[in-house]
Amino acid sequence: MPEQPTMGPACQGKRGLPVHGAARAAADNPWVRPGVVVHDPAEVVDDLLADFALTLKRRGFNVAGFVQHNNRGCAGKGEGCAPRISYLDLGSGATVKVDRDDAVTYLQAAMRESTDLLVISHFSACLGATDSLHARFGPGAAPGLPLLTSIAGQCIHKWHCYARQEGTMLSPDLASLWAWWGPEHLYRDLALGVAAQEIRRIVCGPRWIMIEGPGGVGVAALPCHPRELLPRLPKLARRSLRELAALSASWDPLDMAVAIAAINAHYNRRDVDAPAGNGVRAFRHVPGQVVVVGAFPGVDGMLPNCALAEADPRPGRFPIVALDSLLPGCGAAVVNASALVNRSLPRLLRLARHRPVALVGPATPLSSRLHDYGLAVVAGFVVDDADGLAAAIRAGATAREFGRHGRFIHLPAAKKAADSPEAASFHKARSTIAG
């Protein structure tokens, strides 16, 4: 049997960011959050699992586990696999051939890693590995390790016996996988993409914070008076954009504002080429009512008969608590970027699942990464006159006054991109084996 790849413990996340892996303390009795792709026995889902996992890996997440390359020599559809199985090791990218019992050993080692996602494409191997480690499905002291596997529909009773009510059954498509992965991960996803570049200046006013990097300027609305933040600014200015973006893991409101401004300084670059405006006019013709979360200048003219929800609602508008009823049945939703800073965005995306959602405002990161989390449109602000905006922010300018210092543009969700190099390599290897 070929030499098995070494799987040493990971001590630090990709790109130098702190490890956020859910399995860092899961050597004994790990708590897992399982999801299973239920498919027709004749349907191949290994490509789907590989595409999803390799996309996360390419973005900087720590991905471990195996995806099966071949399924030859079966006794029948959905009735097990060949005595020797070829796997793609998602961590190393190596293709390995192991016996079924040996595969369990590999998967046990993967579960002990500090991983963000563990993929065990074959359910029987998943069952063997989790049983060996006495994995638990239920509330724990830390977020459960996302564990993704697959099973043929005719064997679904085995899944129910395995996960009972704690697991999630998924349809075989990328949208379902991203929904299971969850919008809570979007903050770290954005932070992982930020380069370790120098900060040229930080400007803080009574309402907004501005961070300038080598390629662009980012802003974020301050959730409260910055009196506690001001003494920290000199020290923060000596750190990199990546380090400040990592503050998005904090629950401190001012840290979040700093993190979002740093994230925007990376993504909202001066050379971004995208359509002008916020793109919400396209929602005028969607069937059903458009729900607007937060105040926008001129929103009544852009979206007649919309339902507006605000923290301090004026007559004729809804309180924020009404979103629990408004969003699930809406035709579309437009969300102010303040929801990104106050961490309410993941909840809003879950409530409006399967509906087109736009994130709009100067603090919106112009990143296509957000599209995978359910945002059909991301509309943000690109600064052309950094000096002018800095002076305006110091003077207490509101978002209405930003327009003279830059431009509002939007990124609509694009069609599915071509395979990554890793995914293309996987498909080629699979075709070779099948042949």
From TrEMBL:
Domain of life: Bacteria
Domain Putative heavy-metal chelation: 288-410
InterPro entries named in the record: DUF2478, DUF364, DUF4213
DUF4213 domain residues: 187-266
Protein name: DUF2478 domain-containing protein
Species the sequence originates in: Rhodopila globiformis
